[in-house]
Amino acid sequence: MRYPFKLAVVVGMLFWMVSGVSLAADYPTKPITLINPMPPGGTLDLQARSWASIAEKHLGQPVVVVNKPGATGMVGAVAGAQAAPDGYTLTVASVNFTNAVEWEIANGRKPPFTYDDFVYLGSFTMSPTLVIVPFDSPFKTLQEFMAAAKAKPGQLSYCSGGLYGMSHLPIEIFAKATGLKFRHVPYSGGGPCLSAVVGKHVDFAFQYPPTTIPLAQGNKLRILAVAGARRLKSLPGIPCFKELGIDAEYYGWVGIAAPKNTPKNIVEKLREVTKKVAEDKTFIEAIEK
Fold this sequence. Notes:
Blueprint: H1 2-26, E1 32-36, H2 43-59, E2 63-67, H3 74-81, E3 89-94, H4 95-106, E4 118-128, E5 130-134, H5 142-151, E6 157-160, H6 169-178, E7 183-186, H7 190-198, E8 204-207, H8 209-217, E9 221-226, E10 251-259, H9 264-279, H10 281-288
Parallel strand pairs: 1-2, 1-3, 6-7, 6-8
Antiparallel strand pairs: 3-10, 4-10, 5-8, 5-9
């Protein structure tokens, strides 16, 4: 009497395996959700929507960006890690993943997710931050800004997209390298932080080129320096930290990730699409404008 049961189990497993392979081969057959762990308006949001608009042309299905901010990206990251590994829920990955996990470990806490909860499909940007101030700020150069900060320790305020995130750590590194002290005002993401700079609610911030440069071109804020080793092609007149003798470089990477155990052929297809998007002129122009 046991053999029919065993046979049914084996047949059921084979059916599941064959069906799974078939579904993966036909992927995608419905819209794909792309979780952005940060709020609208920041560099992750711009890059996510730029990636989605081009990726859906290669995939033949809509890619819908859903913002799930909170805890410097951890809320959205956890949602992405816990999603079904079927290729229909992806996550915008970034250096915030690294920062969040390492900060939890450093403080003796178990991280809500780990690197191994994801399979990484590729990164498409590795960018330095830009030192920015309100457009009518009295600081016209980084030297003027640093002189004021030295004269008034702890009085100049800055915003970030969240504690220990990709726009907070660069300033801590800068402060340590220069011996300066500032007052931190954390926001829920890069978009709200940029609004705070434009609205003169804080004195400065370190933010990323894709969302910062258009505001500078519109005379909404001023860029004082590039926190990297060389000038940007899109900002040839803005000095970089290395030429100014400041050892405080910081680069934030952004990419796409899927939950672990996503079928191999789906992962390979998404990696191929991510590579095509990263090389697309429209995507490059959106990021470098």
